[in-house]
Amino acid sequence: MGDHLETIKNAVIGGKHGEIKSMVQSAISAGLDPDTVINEALIPAMDVVGKDFASGKIFVPEMLVSAVTMKAGVDILKPLLAGGQSQSRGTVIMATVKGDLHDIGKNLVTMMLEGAGFKVIDLGVDLSVEKLIDQVKATRPDILGLSALLTTTMPEIQNVIRELKAQGLRDKVKVMVGGAPVDRRFAEKIGADGYGANAAEAVQLARRFVGDKA
Amino acid sequence: MELKPDFNRFLAAVRHKEADRVPLGEILVDYSIQGRFLGRTVTSDDLAGQVEFWAKAGYDYVPITVSMMSPGKVTEESRITRVLKEMVLREKPGTTDPKAWNLEFTSFIHERSDLDKFPWEAAADIDFSQLHAVKDLLPAGMKVIAVSGKIFTLTWMLMGFNNFALKLVLDEPLVAEVFERVASIQFKALEAIFSMDHVAGVWVVDDVAFGTGPMISPSAFKKHVFSWYKKVGDRCHDNNRIFLMHSDGDLSTLLDDLIAMGLDVIQPIDPSCMDIAKVKKQWGDRICLVGNVSNELLRSASTAEIAARVRELLRDVAPGGGFALGSGNSVPNWAKFENYMAMRETCLKEGSYPIRR
Fold first, then answer.
1. CATH number at residue B219
2. B74-95, pLDDT tens digit by residue?
3. Is 2.30.30.30 the CATH classification of the domain at A2-84?
4. Which residues on B lie below 8 Å from A104 (Cβ)?
5. What is the DSSP string of chain A?
6. In the CATH hierarchy, which fold is given to the domain comprising A91-209?
7. Does any domain span residue B60?
8. What is the pTM of this model?
9. Which one of B105, B169, B213 has the shortest CB-CB distance to A61?
10. How close does chain A come to B287, measured CA to CA in Å?
11. Residue A82: pLDDT over 70
12. Would the CB atoms of B166 and A180 count as touching at under 8 Å?
């Protein structure tokens, strides 16, 4: 049993995209529970990938391939889970704020969060305060992830937090922020709940927000 | 104070020599800043205004963009946009969003089958008219640096970043072929650029790093990107031109490779993640540095704080040459005009060689 989990974990870490489906199917055929495969192989694999990325051992392409490898594994397991749904760690809305069309960083965080077991609603780029608030009201996420690449669009993050307060939503959602010009000091100043310097840090932060000690 | 452009001043810095003063260096100054400096409107078509600004503001060259699908210059009127629009409407009739055929918003090469569908001939249609026209406007001593040769960013823009990154691992030959097609177009442009005596160098604007480090692995950069840039560097040097590069992000793990590919100048040594004084100590005898008053300072600091930062740079980085002073990226429209003026004026007043420590 342990061999199957170790093989799957190593396949995700190594980005064995073409092999993961048959590995997961073998594990299920051998009697492993789908939840066990997710929680003891796929998610721990992405933890390793996140740490390797943060330490500069691997780079964006390798991390993305690991993320899609994991997703291919999850896709096999989803129909087998109770109710046909994987139990997500929490829901995250991701968006780049108004005036900013840059999305590389946001996309990386999105893929890493999905890899770590979160349900991610990626709203894209250039999101107005109004649209973001509407989405928070409609989907009630656990976390709102806001990104800005430009110094000029950074203030939009603060505007979103102000509006969350004005609408009585601030204590209902954790806000994490990131992007090239953003730093921890700025995050604290505008009243965000946390700052991620890179995708791996963002995932750690999100896990902390939902009470995950791993 | 009347300032006379002298490209030999900039060249001396590139050759790690001290000229009369530390040269000023920028890749881009927003037209609104140029206009405010001159007291009249300057536009992208106003070449005379641009040359007048760069000369009067104290620069020894004027940068002119002449490149395949230059971001910011891909307009509705561009030939590539017209051709892509026809292609998109043929495949998806009824599409109305102009972003669907704008290369800055939409990627076109996702699979191998897309490679030959892409209108490479139209993409290769580079407009050299400004580069030719500027010749007769240059004051004595002033040269042009052609902003051209971007390879990495154009390749991932054509493929979309996520798809590019995935394919780099899952279908490396496809990525290599897109790199080759983009590089071939850029190389052809170099031939035209080198035929113009008033062009003294090629400045590649290609972001290769995030604030946390390289966008792809250093080994992938060496194999797929720097191998091409080595050829750009060789061609520049064979034609007695200098080879300059702009990249945001933390280049610490790439600088040895960038120097090995023949780069003469690196700009801006991103102040959000690199310490230019440390870069000077470690690599400063092998490459000329241009920068790096942070854009955040240009936006929010006082003129006294700007002057203090310029003095630090003059003290720590200018001695021995190998340095030109400028912003930490480019001078955008949101920089405070008085801060831009304080940056250049402090350098012009206090940047005479030898630098007083």
1. 3.20.20.210
2. 556 667 777 888 888 888 898 8
3. no
4. 161
5. -HHHHHHHHHHHHTT-TTTHHHHHHHHHHTT--HHHHIIIIIHHHHHHHHHHHHTTSS-HHHHHHHHHHHHHHHHHHGGGSGGG----S-EEEEEEBTT----HHHHHHHHHHHHTT-EEEE--SSB-HHHHHHHHHHH--SEEEEE--STTTHHHHHHHHHHHHHTT-GGGSEEEEESTT--HHHHHHHT-SEE-SSHHHHHHHHHHHTT---
6. Rossmann fold (3.40.50)
7. yes
8. 0.86
9. B169
10. 25
11. no
12. no
